[in-house]
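Hi everyone,

Forwarding the result from last night's run.
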Amino acid sequence: MNTVIHKAGDRGHANHGWLNAHHSFSFAGYYDPKKEQFGTLRVLNDDIVQAGYGFGMHPHNNMEIVTIPLRGALKHKDSSGGEGVIKTGDVQIMSAGSGIMHSEHATADEDVNLFQIWVFPKKVNIEPRYDQRTFDESDRENKWQIVVSPEEAHHALWINQDAYFSLGNFDTTTSYQLNKEGNGVYLMVIEGEIEIDGNVLTNRDAIGITEAKAFEIKVLQAAKLLVVEVPMK
């Protein structure tokens, strides 16, 4: 098993007042040649957007974009006709495909904290699409809840890539079994404290794992975890 550690304090950081952003990978004004991507995982931004503020209409293409609100709610609108509000407990995916415009704004009554995650697609120039779903958070207590998957059998949001996103809330030692051979895993500690392969990780620390079919996670303090499993090529 090979590992790479990304500590929370080493992330890129930009505070624009209305937007307080932390970047796990090179993004916008932040560039680190050692953190350009992890396999097909290109972006993992941890954003706090001030109530009533957000991103106006802007373009994307050929990227799978997953948004996971951790606190608050986010209003969304795109040129494919997708429109709605995503809140804590929801997950949203947008296939930018051949090209799409979209906007995102925090609701007027509270700030929103969210993860926005970009994954390179398996097929390019597909028809743009948008989907979102509310997941029962009780279904991730001491087990993995798959929220994004290329397989319909998982009852998750479909992604145009051999990638799997899972959330779990653990208070006891657990493990993770890869869904597809050859994939790598990028695990983010949302909160809590864990140990993997001798590495102790706490709030917003992350670990990239390759060349492993499964691995053990020791839970040192009750932990909320996000796993993004992606092809490495």
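The CA atoms of residues 163 and 230 lie 5 Å apart.

Cheers,
N.
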